[in-house]
Specification:
6 helices, Rna Polymerase Sigma Factor, Chain: A, 125 residues, mainly alpha
Length: 125
């Protein structure tokens, strides 16, 4: 895994590798339960382990509740941030909603033709 090659000292690299093999499936499960998207879940798993690289010195033991809680907190925070970011794009307020809603008094093909004619007229001026 490319993540391991970013760490220069062997002790930290071995620690990250142990963390990965111990917790990557657990992290994926948490992320997937929040996002319900396997591709995004894989991205967040990688982000979690990047965060762990940045904080590798704070981890003393691999198999302890403190380490597991630390990983869960990082995982939840990254997942929730991505979830909120993804949903904020879906819920953007449309400024000119009347421009978006189709005029139902005119058939769509006539409206398209009318808009094309208006566009040509405006460009020929």
């Amino acid at each position: 895994m490319l993540l391991f090659s970013t760490i220069e000292d062997d002790y930290s690299r071995d620690k990250l590798e142990e963390l990965y093999y111990k917790y990557h499936k657990y992290v994926y499960k948490i992320v997937y339960n929040i996002l319900n998207d396997s591709y995004l879940a894989q991205d967040v798993v990688q982000s979690v382990f990047i965060k762990l690289i940045e904080n590798i010195d704070k981890i003393d033991r691999i198999e302890c509740n403190k380490t597991k809680a630390f990983i869960v907190i990082i995982t939840r925070n990254l997942s929730i941030n991505l979830y909120r970011k993804r949903n904020s794009h879906k819920n953007m307020v449309l400024e000119n909603i009347e421009d978006v809603i189709c005029d139902t008094s005119q058939p769509i093909d006539e409206r398209i033709i009318s808009e094309e004619i208006l566009d040509r007229i405006s460009h020929n001026r």
